[in-house]
Amino acid sequence: MLTGLAWRNLWRQPRRTLLNTLSIGFAAMVMVFLLALQLGTYASVKENVLKAFDGYAQIQPPGYRDDPALHRTIEDPGMVMDAAKRVAGVTDAAPRASSFAIVSRGDASFGAAVTGVDPALEQRVSALHNTIARGRYLEPGDGAAAVIGSALARNLGVDLGGRLTLLGEARDGTVAADVLTVVGVFDTGTRELDRQVVEMPLTRFQDTFAMGKAVNVVVLGGKSLARLTDALPRVRERLPDPDLRVVDWKTLRPGVSQAITLDVSVSMLWYASLLVVVVFIVLNTLLMSVLERTREFGVLLAVGMRASLIGRMVWMELLLLALLGLTAGVLAGTGLALAIGHYGLVLPGAEAVFAQWGVPGRLFPRLDAVSAFAGPLAMLAGILAAGVIPYRRIRQLEPVSAMRAA
Amino acid sequence: MNAIRALALIVALLGGSVARAGNPDPDQLLRQAFDNWRGKTSHTTVEMTVHRPDWERTMSMDSWTRGEDDALVRFTAPAKDAGNATLKLGDDMWIFNPRLNQIIKLPASMMAQSWMGSDFSYNDLAKADDVLTEYTHRITSTSQADGHAAYEIEALPKPDAATVWGKQLVTVRDDGVLLSETYFDQDMKPLKQMTTERVDDLGGRPYPVVMTMSKTGDDDRWTRIEFQSGRFDIDLPGALFTRSNLRNPRDFGTGAGH
Hints:
The complex is a heterodimer. In chain A, the strands form 2 sheets. In chain A, strands 2-3-8-5-7-6 form a 6-stranded mixed β-barrel, surrounded by 4 helices. In chain A, strands 11-12 form a two-stranded antiparallel ribbon. In chain A, helix 2 (14-52) packs across helix 12 (307-343) and helix 12 (307-343) runs antiparallel to helix 14. By secondary structure, chain A is α+β, with helices and mostly antiparallel strands. Chain A is built from 16 helices and 12 strands. In chain A, a hairpin with a 5-residue loop joins strand 6 and strand 7 (175-186). In chain A, 42% of the residues are buried. By secondary structure, chain B is an alpha+beta fold. Chain B has a single domain (2-247), classed as Lipoprotein localisation LolA/LolB/LppX (outer membrane lipoprotein receptor (LolB), chain A, Clam). Chain B contains 5 helices and 13 strands. Chain B has helices at 2-22, 26-38, 122-126, 130-133, 243-247, and strands at residues 41-52, 55-66, 70-77, 85-89, 92-97, 102-105, 135-145, 148-157, 167-173, 178-184, 190-202, 205-215, 222-232. A 13-stranded antiparallel β-sheet of chain B has the order 6-5-4-3-2-1-13-12-11-10-9-8-7. The longest helix of chain B is centred in the first third of the chain and has 21 residues, at 2-22. Chain B is globular, with a radius of gyration of 21 Å. The relative contact order of chain B is 0.17. The interface between A and B is medium-sized, with 18 and 23 residues.
């Protein structure tokens, strides 16, 4: 009965109710859409940064993260890769071996992260092959071949067909030396990669660095970063060697994780201000209507209705109003997110900023339970909490003085 | 009562001043250790054993030094390593690898890397003298070793010096024999230490003929250098310390060629 009463009360002032519904609805729509856009951008940043080189996740030997030394190895990469790929959510696994070595040509020499990769498998876990600026990526069957970063190529004064010498330390303590021909130059746009990374075929690397069949890490790939990350605990259980570590994206790229956390905190402030403004607007009109209806409440009290019941009725009006507005807002927000998610949002002039993070110029909102409902639920809670104020006001009404009020 | 206290004070003062008078100048002592180590010029033959949990290997090398800045090291055995050589001129280092038949200048970014698979880094070779010139010295304790006084010297970086280490502790015997050197990082945690295991006569001087470099807290990874022969303050031809000699070793009658 209380609900029906509240509903009818709402429509005694249809214009005011509609305006309130609109402001709640608009705020909810903005929250839903912006949050979806934000989450979509984060996912895109994470996936692009990780795909550039590290991969979504890695299996590493103990101690490798703090001291990535050549002698910390996975002895039987085949078994580890098979075990990982049997876990649902893991679609790909690729072996890598890596060492810091001197790369030189003529009088120029630089330190570089020389990485041995399986040319076919590697293309499924990282996107380096998509950033080849000249020449080609490594292919199965390549021998003394290398792809190198554009800045390193410039520093060394070497281009396609040029020969690099490699000097490092093999796993058995002897000198590792090799001569490689540059078959491709990549340009990722990320300075450290373009300046430091040399990729060569894994088998050649294992020969040069006396690795046998061992590798240093296994890189994992999945349909999306989120799905692969969810699968990691099960990968951990399945590993043939319990000493091996499964390293997720946050550990691989703590900088990205921290940047996202910071961005979330800043945008939380914006969302909170939006929420507070909307709650105040609604509260304002509600207080006005309570003042206007003081006489009416006085009559209700005089005929024996308890003040707390009147308070609850007004609170119910508030709840109905909020639900009405929020439903409209969620529908509009998800609709907008879905429509724009279909085509992507192009922000003119922002490409350069995005390129730093390896993000394509088009943003795609990501709609899920969090982005669709987190904002509206917070608003609902805020509006209901604000309802305490009129409720307490009504509890203090005296029938006689209330009826005499203007 | 007062008399006893006064007496104690006098004894303490005397004792202190005696100890101070007995302590040599730490700068002098370190300088003496380095001069003893390599003379004005030196030619030594050295065996280097690198120990790892899963392997151990021994290499032989010839080493020449001139003054504080220049050094040439050429590996002679085993066959797999023979011919590899390192030349240091001032702050620059070059590496020769016979398989590549090429001289490669060591990039600055590689200075912290291991030298020839050992526990010595290129920095240990290139910046060994920093402890003399870039650090301030203080004797922190005195002990006895083989009938000699041994002084522990704490070396802290000078205010503006760009040093590899946060601190070094060097123990030197009163006759200039280096007994140990401990390397601390910027957080003052010991990272690795070099310890003299045997002192003997080499080229007519007392010399730390067996030394071991090891990472602190890791007994299974170390590098031992053992001096087989040594001659000091000899005439060395200037052409020995050149890049052309690094690539094409010539016999200067000093055992420089092989």
